[in-house]
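wait is this the right file?? whatever heres the structure
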């Protein structure tokens, strides 16, 4: 049984490193078919004692172009065959076929940015007993980037996450498998994402908390350095901060 608390107890970095294999990621840092760059990033992560790596094979930026399942698996297989390092790998996908392929290749974490809306994704989580990252998505949202109106974004996101957690547990997901992510930048305007990040401790409610603000537009509205933002998250009880890996 995958257990978040056990895994996190062995981690000191507080970082979930990001590896993009898509050619059109919003940061333009895709490493598909770039062996040297990929290996440099992973070596750097290893040197920094980063234990968790989140691997994405398809872009989810606003206006992203969908890729075929075959293409997403091709990119994932490239990573699997190229990587020579030992990390706890997370698959960043809402495609059940891709996700299932990842967990069968020793990926321990399912990061479904669509919020486990698909029954197939929930079934994979139950059957594989993988750790999961439940990313917030408004229950009435029609797409990942459908901007929703919030009266009290922190309160509503917390309520939505708690409701989804109860639903997942009722379908067979174990509490130990679940970590939550407020979904900064997804279906939220800039001020909503800022409010969530600045009040992130209010979402700490019994489950490991993961946040991703790295290189997103809304952080320009926060007068804090990257190091101060990271410290703010850790001091607020965040378990992992999703960060783009660098060579330095």
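ok assuming it is, sequence goes like this
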């Amino acid at each position: 049984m995958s257990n978040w608390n056990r895994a996190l107890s062995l981690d000191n970095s507080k970082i979930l490193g990001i590896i993009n294999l898509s050619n059109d990621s919003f940061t333009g840092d895709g490493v598909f078919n770039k062996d040297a760059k990929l290996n440099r990033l992973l070596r750097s992560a290893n040197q920094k004692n980063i234990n968790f790596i989140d691997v994405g094979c398809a872009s989810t930026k606003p206006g992203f172009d969908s890729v075929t399942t075959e293409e997403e698996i091709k990119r994932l297989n490239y990573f699997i065959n190229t990587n020579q390092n030992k990390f706890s790998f997370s698959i960043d996908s809402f495609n059940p076929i891709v996700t299932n392929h990842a967990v069968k290749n020793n990926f321990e974490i399912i990061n479904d940015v669509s919020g486990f809306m698909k029954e197939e994704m929930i079934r994979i989580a139950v059957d594989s007993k993988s750790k999961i990252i439940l990313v917030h998505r408004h229950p009435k949202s029609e797409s990942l980037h459908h901007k929703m109106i919030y009266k009290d974004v922190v309160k509503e996101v917390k309520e939505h996450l708690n409701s989804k957690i109860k639903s997942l547990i009722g379908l067979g997901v174990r509490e130990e498998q679940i970590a939550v992510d407020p979904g900064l930048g997804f279906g939220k305007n800039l001020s909503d994402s800022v409010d969530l990040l600045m009040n992130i401790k209010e979402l700490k409610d019994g489950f490991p908390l993961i946040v991703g603000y790295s290189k997103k537009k809304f952080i320009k509205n926060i007068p804090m350095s990257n190091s101060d933002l990271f410290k703010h998250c850790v001091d607020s009880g965040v378990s992992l901060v999703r960060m783009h890996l660098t060579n330095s």
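Residues 48 and 88 are 14 Å apart (CA to CA). so i think its the right one actually
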